[in-house]
């Protein structure tokens, strides 16, 4: 068994999902507080669906969690001794100007997966995501749905312990949305902690274990999904669910 396969099994089947803790976290730009201060811990099974109106701070929260931005104040910590392996999928797929399979092989290479394992892992993932026929197609000429499946395949080969998805289906048709949701479900079943933003209430109901609701740069509510959809407790979430304009 290789060094790569050990954490793959350990993370997905044996270990609980890593917990994410925000403690008094704020993010400011040019003296304007865009997010926070907020404190919460993601420790349930999830998936966690991050909801709220445009400009609420959902993408900022994901980027801070993933380490793409640093908080201006406060601490973001993970349970365990080392930062968990993680991946992020964006609304607009970010792919290299090379073939579909080469995108996966590149991701494996930069994550130090032994060379001899890369081709098989890449082809297995392409097959899992229904992309075998597009294997040698330049990634950037694939359809939007195919590109999004390729970004999920790229995350899949890395066996992340945490997967962030920022509105991954907002530009997709129903069939492509179904494929992405099936993949999210499978990541979750495999033990990956899912943190995902969406504006689609139906999608949130289909996927969520818990809801983190934001408005105006603040976390207004963090509830189990069933309770949230039955009766949100915060005034802001009640207004949002009633279809009122919420800032
Ligand atoms: N890098 C940045 N520099 C300055 N302002 C930013 C930056 N990133 C986001 N903002 C601002 O922070 C606020 C929150 O943005 P964010 O993208 O997190 O909102 P969101 O909830 O994801 O919105 P949407 O649902 O429209 O995608 C917005 O007012 C946005 O203009």
Automatic annotation (TrEMBL):
Keywords: ATP-binding, Cell inner membrane, Cell membrane, Membrane, Nucleotide-binding, Transport
SUPFAM superfamilies listed in its UniProt record: P-loop containing nucleoside triphosphate hydrolases (SSF52540)
Principal subcellular localization: membrane
Record carries keyword Cell membrane: yes
Domain ABC transporter: 20-241
Gene Ontology terms for molecular function: ATP binding
Lineage top rank: taxon: Bacteria
InterPro entries associated with the record: AAA+_ATPase, ABC_transporter-like_ATP-bd, ABC_transporter-like_CS, MetN_ABC_transporter-like, P-loop_NTPase
Keyword hit for tRNA processing: no
Family annotation (Pfam families): ABC_tran (PF00005)
Family to which the UniProt record says this protein belongs: Belongs to the ABC transporter superfamily.
UniProt-recorded name of the protein: ATP-binding cassette domain-containing protein
Organism: Marinobacter xiaoshiensis
Lineage of source species: Bacteria, Pseudomonadati, Pseudomonadota, Gammaproteobacteria, Pseudomonadales
